[in-house]
Amino acid sequence: MYMRRLVEFAEQHADDLPPVGYARKNYQWFVVITHDDRFVFIQAERGEQRVIPNRSRSSGVSPILLTDKAEYVFQLPKNPDNAKRAEKCHLAYLKLLKECYEATHNEAVQKIVRILESKNWQLPDGMKSTDVILFRTEAGDFPHEDNKVMNFWKNFLSNTGANDETDSICFICGRSAPAVKRHSIEFSLGRERTKLISANESAYLSYGLENSEIASTCFECEQKYGQALSYLLRKYANKKQHGGPHMMEIGNVTYVYWTRLSDPEFSGMFKLLSDPDGTAVQRILSSPFRRAENYATLNHVCILALSANKARLVVRDYAEPPVWRVKNQVRRYFDAQQVVGAPKPASIYLLAACMYRDGRKEMQKEDVQDWMNWALYGKRISERIAVKIVRRIQARGGMTWIQAAAIKSWLISQNKEEWTVDLDHARITPSYLCGRLFAVLEAVQYEAVKGNETIASRFYAAASSTPRTLFGLLMRNSKWHLNKIGKENKGYEVRYQQRIQLITGQLKEFPAVLDLQGQAEFALGYYHERQEIYKKKEDMPADSADVSHSNKAAAEGE
Question: For the chain, which residues score pLDDT lower than 50?
Answer without folding.
Answer: 290-296, 541-558
